[in-house]
Design goal:
Blueprint: E1 17-19, E2 22-23, H1 29-45, E3 48-52, E4 55-59, E5 67-69, H2 71-80, H3 86-98, E6 101-103, E7 107-109, H4 111-125, E8 133-137, E9 140-144
């Protein structure tokens, strides 16, 4: 004799799994992918503001900082959330009921683009202080105070 048991939520996100605050419970892969794409687009378009002293430095969006959000990776993570070995499944069942399992949209940073943006901000601010120094001439201590000129070495 054989017994077939249904597999609950097969091909669907488990209840309590969310992306960007949107509950994916019972949604199929097409719906999950759509939510992941919308959340990635929202994050990608979100303006970023940095503050240096009293100067506000604005990057138009995440791409201006070299950031790329991966909706496909978020889709895969949402499909895996709450599914794993037996112990993880038990723990995740409690997590899903206690507040859910939020799935983040992974981000990748292009370090060259980010470094170029930081360099640009540094030129905009242009009033950063270079480290000062102490020089010893015999028993005399010569103090070179911090300088507002970036990149200049004290001799």
């Amino acid at each position: 004799q054989t017994c077939a048991l249904p597999i609950p939520h097969r091909g669907e996100a488990l209840p309590g799994v969310s992306i960007g605050g949107f509950d994916l419970g019972g949604r199929d892969e097409t719906d999950i992918a759509a939510v992941a794409r919308l959340e990635a687009a929202r994050l990608q378009a979100q303006p970023f503001t940095a503050v240096a002293g009293s100067t506000r430095l604005v990057a138009a969006d995440a791409a201006a900082l070299g950031a790329t959000y991966d909706s496909e990776a978020a889709l895969q993570a949402a499909r895996r959330a709450g599914r794993g070995n037996a112990l993880a499944a038990i723990v995740d069942t409690f997590r899903r009921r206690a507040g859910g399992i939020p799935v983040a949209v992974p981000v990748t940073i292009d370090e060259q683009v980010l470094a170029a943006r930081v360099d640009e901000w540094q030129r905009q601010v242009g009033s950063g202080l270079a480290n000062g120094s102490l020089t010893f001439r015999g028993t005399e201590v010569v103090v070179a105070p911090p300088s507002r000129e970036i990149g200049r070495a004290h001799v």
